[in-house]
Amino acid sequence: MTIALIDYGAGNLHSVHNALKAAGAADVAVTADPGTVLRADRIVLPGVGAFGACAAGLRAIPGMVEALDARVRRAGAPFLGVCVGMQLMADTGEELGTHPGLGWVSGTVRAIAPAPGIRVPHMGWNDVVPTLSHPLIEPGQAYFLHSFAFTGDAVLATTDHGGPVTAAIGRDNMIGVQFHPEKSQRYGIALMERFLAWHP
């Protein structure tokens, strides 16, 4: 089973790669090659930084968005988006302007509103509270680091940061998590184990 870990200059690839290996993945291809994505059994899209820069980086690789669309949306390969990789599943992001996402899940990524006693960015360990039953999402604690959050459809879990903040989204064969499983110790590795065994 080959896992394509997308390299588009915007992800903590080393840590995510190590977490996938710790979860039992034998063949992880760190790749910017659309052909490798088209042949992969599962796909992981990491992401660190600003939504617009990440979207631009992904689109700068000729054929990558088309390969993701073909393999994930049409062929049904299991997909995991991590942090900004999850946010890119949305229609748009409003960080430093308005930028188009992949449009896989209806919604918008907006700034977390500051409030008394609430720090932005949202950084550190926090609860993951499932809102819908999903085989990959279990209650627990995970590590978050973000200033923008998804608002829209298909929310699978929330966390509390001055009110509910989206922690996971998904539909069909696609799932995204706002937290960093690669930094979430046993909780994160267990999530990746479930992803590797997932047959949506």
Biggest pleated sheet: 9 strands, mixed
pLDDT averaged residue by residue: 96
Beta-strand content: 25-35%
Counted by DSSP, the helix tally is 6
Total number of beta strands? 13
Helix share bin: 25-40%
Helix-strand topology string:
EHEHEHHEHEEEEEEEEEH
Structural class: alpha/beta
- How are the strands of the biggest sheet laid out side by side? 2-1-3-4-13-12-11-8-9
Distance between the termini: 16 Å
Q: pLDDT under 50 segments (min length 5)?
A: none
Cα gyration radius (Å): 15 Å
Descriptive overview:
The chain is α/β, with parallel strands linked by helices. It has helices spanning 13-22, 34-39, 51-59, 64-74, 84-87, 185-197; strands spanning 2-6, 27-31, 42-45, 79-82, 92-93, 99-100, 107-111, 122-130, 140-146, 148-152, 155-160, 164-171, 174-177. It has a 9-stranded mixed beta sheet with strand order 2-1-3-4-13-12-11-8-9, with helices on both faces. A 4-stranded mixed beta sheet has the order 6-5-7-10, covered by helices on one side. Strand 1 (2-6), helix 1 and strand 2 form a beta-alpha-beta unit.
